[in-house]
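Issue 218. Parser rejects a valid record. Input:
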Amino acid sequence: MPGLVSVKTPPDAPPLRIAVSDGTLQTASRPDSRSEPRSNSPATRRPPSPSPSSSRARRSPDRSFGKKKSTPEKALINESSLENPDLGPFLLKLARDTIACGEGPNKALDYALRASKSFEKCAVDGEPNLDLAMSLHVVSAIYCSLGKFEEAVPVLERAIGVPEVSRGPDHALAMFSGYMQLGDTHSMLGQLDRSITCYKEGLKIQMDALGGNDPRVAETCRYLSEVHVQAMQFDEAESLCKRTLEIHRIHSPPASLEEAADRRLMALICEAKGDYESALEHLVLASMAMIANGQENEVAAIDVSIGNIYSSLTRFDEAVFSYQKALTVLKSSKGDSHPSVASVYVRLADLYYKTGKLRESRSYCENALRIYAKPVPGTTAEEIASGMAEISAIYELFNEPEEALKLLQKAMGLLEDKPGQQSTVAGIEARLGVMYYMVGRYEESRNAFESAIGKLRYGGERKSAFFGVVLNQMGLACVQLFKIDEAVELFEEAREILERESGPCHQDTLGVYSNLAATYDAMGRIDDAIEILEYILKLREEKLGTANPDFDDEKKRLVELLKEAGRSWNKKAKSLENLIDPNSKRTKKEAPKKWSAFGFRS
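Output the parser choked on:
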């Protein structure tokens, strides 16, 4: 978050007579770790999500309050004394000192709450009090440090209502800071849609106060662009990232570190949109800028991204060269057991599987797992979970679903209690649902999908194509459990979402159409099933062509349904297995392959 509002208090001021400086409300810069978003989502072929090395979710405020220095001055403060105008600044200083000396956040929270009450009582009627807004920001930050994000939200909403933008830049920046902090808090709760709304409001206020070309506006644009990438809203992300590049060209020299970071983000967006050539161009320019600035480790990270692009373009020899080049640098600078080295091993394992070198692929998987099993100090749970999820996808390709399941379960166990990781956990649960389905554990599959869908709904991702695909998957699990009514509801909702997000001709949408027709037939809703199959065949004939083998299967199913409709409406429903695929023997033999077409693969 671009910062908290703060008012400086002279350290040597006497008790109860603390003077507040005239320093303006400022915003802190964002951590550099956000500069390279990368996906760790286990959803197959899902466009990369904006995660620095694992997930784009924001880190919760630092919960370690430092080493104990000294005991803050203790004072007996009566509620009646809160009307003293000197008390608010004093209590706020006590809150800071309590945090600094490690006496615990609860005592600091009490001081900050009393400070906000004092500022409120001392406020002049009709006059907004920036000290009150600042104290509320401190209260919310302490709530977040305690993991009480829900309690921080109303405090921040109240803080946002205190400043008046028309009263000058201090008020504008106070409101901007409040919106950005509120956006971060919503993000930690997994409410991505609300988070984006807050960031947009903050950006608008900042641009009105500072102008559209201020370097601080560029930082906020980039910040919001990363969040749009996480939400898979790539057009919005691209527009904001272009704006960031334009501002940095005005204020920064050519080949600056700021431009390099912007180009890495733009490369990620282009890769997600399938524009690999443009992504490669941005990465090469970013690498040149990092070389010019002597950032050797960053160059290695960019080489990994370049290898990913080459792999997507099936330029495998160039991809291997990029990965090996990065591996050499990372081993020498960070050591053989660093998680970044394991990440390159995973990339090489995937690449060698694609080229048919299965022994080398398995060897690199095992090397990566050895690093994740004994992580070096400083390795985050997100990094380990990301790597395990990616390796599980390779074991799935090896046709070892049980091993893939174990890795996914370990990955989820590392993240499920982490704030801000709801979206990533939902992706892992969706993968688990697919794996459970493949091994015939349909009840567990349904439960995993249900949990993933609940998290995605709560996080505001219920309008994404990914959400539609998960709904379709859960519907398939319900079919196997003979929960037909529930399956129909899921297929219908998936159809609505995928028609809007992907279009009627997309393979995921066509798959939902086919599943919905089969389920309607099983329920005896012959007319509805016929209508859908006719629509599918019309789409294939007019827009997609009839060469697809599914065309003949769907045509046979339609002819069969039309014959049945002409004979009798009161007939015994057919086996669901045969309705979903008329060739039941082939279905059993090729089940993993067929269901994975509607699932997630890496």
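Fixed in the parser; the record now loads. The mean pLDDT is 79.
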